[in-house]
Amino acid sequence: MTVSMPSDVPSPSPVPHDAEAARVPAQRAVAGRARVTELRLSAFASHRRLRVPLDAPFTLVAGPSGSGKSGVLRAYEALARLAAGAELKEAFPDALSCVPDRARPDEQGRRGFRIGCTADGPEGPVRLDVAVQVEPELRIVGERLSSEGLVLLETALRDPGRRAVQAAWHTAGAAPVTRAPLPDDRLGTALLPLRVAGKTEGQRRVLTAAEQMVVALRSVFVCDPRPARMRSAVPLGTGRLLRGCDNLADVLFRTGSECGRRHGLLVDAVRAGCAGPVAGLFAERTTDGRVRALLDRGDGTRTELARLGDGELRYIALALVLLTGPGVLEVDTVDVPEAFQTLTVLADGFGQGLDARQRRELLGLAARMCERGHIRLVGAVNDLSWVEGEDGGESARVVDLAP
User: Fold this and answer.
1) I need a surface site. Which of 232, 343, 360, 389 has the fewest CB within 10 A?
2) Edge to edge, what strands does the sheet with 111-120 contain?
């Protein structure tokens, strides 16, 4: 099974928008930062030869149930985990479901999938393509890192009996390439800084390209609000939001005292999207030392967030994510200054449970935050009505997966 990716596959047709001018400020703001600009699902779950453009700061992946929206975000998250050093089984806990539909095993009983991405930044576009074998054993059987047509790293499975792949990386010194075995359960690109000395110009090029890819992929926050878990009082912790937003009250306890301006903007957003009057949003300690979140109704009445509906809780959590950014979100630590990182939020079911008003407010907020270069957002929605005729919709790049 080799890494063989199509080079001339048309991208899914986005809904036409006159949004290029709106995207220019954000593109300038992140021009020197590493960010993922394309995701490729060459053979993954229900997708074959699919390219998902992610060059815009705000991308919505649209399509009905079963069109593969979740698969797109799952592939992105898995690559991010691999770039952070996770083992293959951690990145793909249900790897068998990633094998393409109706894929038949070869003569050796092997089946797998292929995914990849492009990361742009100071080094220009850098491509990463990965081939994963799922059966009979889960392992990476091929990986290619390239830039401007030059292969910087390539791995291949030579001996199925060994838990290693043969790797060759660009050297451009006395020997054109360096060869060595790498483990078959980790991303070779993430391991290069430990293997490449950086003594030659070629080696330095390999290192800078690998760093750009790793930084672009690792700067990800997966947001999956779980209202059932957001209603309870929680212990005081780090004040950094978890992916399920379980610790919303803990985060509000922190933002209320440390991030006054953005907390005020959050209150404005909650007022616009929640039923009834809203004068404030805060967290307070309970008698057992935990914290709970409440709405101040402005007339002396306080409403615990535990009493709110699922849609309201999801709306508050998503608004908090969009407004606070990397300083409050639980993202992987990257040993690179924040000025060179671009946080990307992945939100499957972006509009789940929201009414028309909440949808409109959240879409506008997402457009504003992404245009400022504050964050990048990739969200999944059920249909194109999310952007048609809505303020903020013109700023979103829409990838339509509908048949």
Assistant:
1) 389
2) 47-53, 35-44, 111-120, 126-135, 139-147, 150-156, 164-170, 177-183
